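Need the bound structure for zinc ion, inputs here:
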Amino acid sequence: MNIPIIMLHHIGKPTGAGLESWSITAQKFSLLLDLIEQKGFTTTTFEEISNGKLQDYANKVILSFDDCPNSLFEFAIPELLKRKMKAVFSIPTAQIGGFNQWDVTEQGFASVALMSAEQLQYLSSLGMEIASHGKHHLRASKISAQQFVEEISASKQLLEKLIGKKIYTLAYPYGEVPENHQQLLKDACYAYGISIYHPKENNFALRRIGIHQSDTSKSISFKLGQSYQLMRIFLDPLLFLLKFFRA
Ligand SMILES: [Zn+2]
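Answer from helper R.:
Posting the output first, comments after.
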């Protein structure tokens, strides 16, 4: 697809144990958006692409937020709106209005509130894309293909009913992509699957660029460029072998 896809989780000071690696400060987020603007990039969504609304793929970037913490409404979302930027928000549907139960039980992370149904409807009405992050945020490697299909189908159905629009995109929980993902996603009527590292990129396993608190103006600029995208073609098969993924 050749559009850089940024992966983000929490914006603002980490509110509890374990969330540090998945948080960037408001300042770092502003720096990312500043650099996007300085490079002359504009934001788009998979929804816009699927609807045929995107004529030109040049100088585009996709911002994606996994898990949908409620706290994104404190700084990140107002900042996006101020800059007329769009983003993709993916949520595990069993936890709409709930909390990051998978982080808490599996990894002992602090509990954070996630967006409510009304907040997701509001985001959708603003032109933001709502995506599925499965139903229970399960690892594809730990469940059967049948369970995976149930997860992605039930969450899609629920979100479509909730926002009254088609859902196009799945953000794989933990970035884990099952082997026969292309067929499974096609059968469940998804158009895109967003992963993290993947050796063979395709529309159902798109690579994403993580932005971390340790990133600088220089490293973010590099990550937004063509050379980084090219580097990932060679880097991802190695990282995949090392099973270096988590979302
Ligand atoms: Zn997640």
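Comments: DSSP finds nine helices and ten strands in the chain. Residues 66-67, 133, 137, 173, 247 surround zinc ion (CB under 6 Å).
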